[in-house]
Amino acid sequence: MTGVRVECVKGNIAAQPDMDAVVNAANAQLLPGSGVAGAIHSAAGPGLAEECRALAPISPGEAVISSAHNLPNRHVIHCLGPVYGVDEPSDRLLAECYRNALLLADHNGLASVAFPAISTGVFGYPLADAATVAMKALADTLPSLGSVRLIRFVLFSDQDLSVFQEALESGLSGQ
Ligand code: ADP
User: Fold this and answer.
1) Residue of the nearest CA to atom 21 in ligand 1?
2) How far is CA 164 from the centre of its chain?
3) Other C-beta atoms within 10 Å of 121: how many?
4) Pocket of ligand 1 contains residue 133 by CB under 6 Å
5) Whose CA is nearest to atom 23 of ligand 1?
6) Which of 20, 130, 167, 169 would be a feasible disulfide site paired with 110, CB 3.0-4.6 Å?
7) pLDDT at 171
8) 1-18 burial, b for 16+ CB within 10 Å, e for fewer?
9) What are the counts of helices (DSSP H) followed by strands (DSSP E) for the chain?
């Protein structure tokens, strides 16, 4: 599988100290919010929102990179996932989040990236469908990666973890 390790764990995206970058399930203005964005901004401190002002707004599917401030990582990659059933085609826009985030990490020479389940909270994307899209996007992007060696999905519950784990096992088989 092109030498890239892909894993799923249960945990908090804002507490992944061994990863070069964590991905924020951001809003268009890159402001602190609820869920993932709330956890990332509160752990990073107010400097993150300040830096993000110059990078906003972003569109669905887009990814931008900032420093990590007080987070234990080198960078935060901010992705705007699609609002399910509103930003269409949702599956393509969600896949672009994963692809653009990975390519951005790679262009910055990063070795490890941790993702939350983008769009599956407030944005309403059904978890199993989102997991399938994520694994397909990874499979499509892995051959283009040079520096990235570890991709981690960080899920918030045991149930979410098993859905992503299952998608990983079927989605990347044969790679
Ligand atoms: P979106 O607006 O893209 O839907 P959310 O932050 O509302 O993003 O939720 C995305 C997913 O992340 C949901 O499955 C939610 O349960 C999960 N989540 C929320 N907080 C955290 C966290 N601190 N670490 C990891 N996952 C989280």
Assistant:
1) 36
2) 13
3) 18
4) no
5) 12
6) 20
7) 80
8) eeebebebebeebbebee
9) 5, 6
Please give the distance, rounded to the nearest whole angstrom, from the Cα atom of residue 92 to the centre of ligand 1.
Answer: 20
The residue count for the chain? 175
Per-domain residue ranges of the chain = 5-173
Ligand 1 centroid–CA 25 distance in Å is 7
Of the candidates 122, 123, 117, 115, the residue with the CA atom closest to the CA atom of residue 152: 115
Q: Can you list the residues of the chain whose pLDDT is less than 50?
A: 1, 174-175
The verdict on the CB of residue 10 being under 6 Å from ligand 1 is no
The protein residue whose alpha carbon is closest to atom 26 in ligand 1 is 156
For residue 118, the SS3 value is coil
Q: Tell me 2's DSSP state.
A: T
Cβ 118 under 6 angstroms from ligand 1: yes
Q: Is the CB of 14 under 6 A from ligand 1?
A: yes
In 3D space, the residue among 146, 156, 84, 143 whose CA is nearest the CA of residue 114 turns out to be 156
Whether the ω angle into residue 32 lies within 30 degrees of 0, i.e. cis, is no
